[in-house]
Write a structure and sequence with these properties.
There is one protein chain. With 237 residues, the chain is an alpha/beta fold. The protein has a domain of 165 residues: P-loop containing nucleotide triphosphate hydrolases (Rossmann fold, 3-Layer(aba) Sandwich), CATH 3.40.50. The protein is 39% helix and 26% strand. It has 10 helices and 10 strands. Helix 3 runs parallel beside helix 6. The chain is globular. It starts with a strand and ends with a helix. Bound molecules: adenosine-5'-diphosphate and magnesium ion. The site of adenosine-5'-diphosphate (ADP) has 11 residues, from strand 2 and helix 1.
Length: 237
């Protein structure tokens, strides 16, 4: 579904990605783990067209999308759940969902399963209860669910998630885990960027460890869990 080949990216003169290569098979969840500042967000942004790569390729479902504008890549069925705040704070939950739905209608479909509002409420009942409340008044976990709902309405085939568990309560992390696992089982493909090791290892089919803009380790999650040397060296756990 996604092949990132020798990707380089910089901000001005400062190089951040030094040849990232990774592979995300269809219907799988691949995690990229790494400490703060190693370039995880830059990787996500370079894949989605939000940052222009210096060198290398991004192949999405067999198509070279390197350097294409983000809206065009999104239209092909790639969605990004950005790090940090992901909703329009001064709009209500209903308005946030409407924007998600209209964006979906404009983009036509990215080839994935588009959820109806009813599907979304069945999975995330808290949103129905909060429809007329401004998004800024939701808890962090609820805002995260709202961001997720907007992605489901669009029906992407590949979802890039940048530290989705950051700042969530243990209860919300479990809820997020349940939803992502279910979606993966329906065939949705994920690239998950995380610092939260247990969350990522529980979900992932395959893991990459990143340091200073390059892959330093790649394995199945069980092997990484058992490799204390690598964990200590690259994640300080
Ligand atoms: N917009 C930017 N301009 C300049 N430097 C940036 C910018 N965004 C990130 N960086 C730098 O690039 C490096 C990687 O950042 P980032 O991709 O956000 O890492 P991570 O997501 O792993 O924490 C850091 O040293 C950061 O300071
Ligand atoms: Mg980041």
């Amino acid at each position: 579904m996604l092949d990132v080949v020798d990707l380089h990216a910089s901000y001005g003169k400062s190089a951040v990605l030094h040849g990232m290569t990774l592979h995300v098979p269809r219907g799988k969840l691949v995690a990229v783990l790494g400490r703060n500042g190693v370039g995880k967000t830059t990787l996500v942004r370079s894949i989605a067209g939000l940052t222009e790569p210096r060198q290398g390729q991004v192949i999405f479902d067999g198509k070279d999308v390197t350097g294409q504008p983000p809206h065009q890549i999104a239209r092909l069925g790639m969605a990004v759940m950005a790090q940090g705040r992901r909703v329009f704070p001064s709009l209500t939950v209903r308005e946030n969902l409407d924007i998600g739905r209209r964006a979906a209608d404009r983009g036509r479909d990215g080839g994935g399963i588009r959820w109806s509002l009813e599907d979304v409420f069945a999975e995330l009942p808290v949103l129905r209860e909060r429809l007329s409340i401004k998004a800024e008044r939701l808890s962090g976990g609820e805002q995260q669910m709202l961001a997720f709902a907007r992605i489901l309405l669009r029906g992407p085939r590949l979802v890039l998630m940048d530290e989705p568990s950051e700042g969530l309560s243990p209860l919300r992390v479990r809820e997020l885990h349940r939803i992502v696992a279910r979606l993966r089982d329906t065939g949705m493909t994920f690239l998950l960027v995380e610092q939260n090791l247990p969350f990522a290892l529980d979900l992932a089919d395959h893991v990459y460890l990143m340091a200073k803009g390059a892959v330093v380790h790649e394995s199945d999650p069980e092997s990484l869990r058992a490799d204390e040397g690598v964990l200590q060296r690259f994640l300080s756990v």
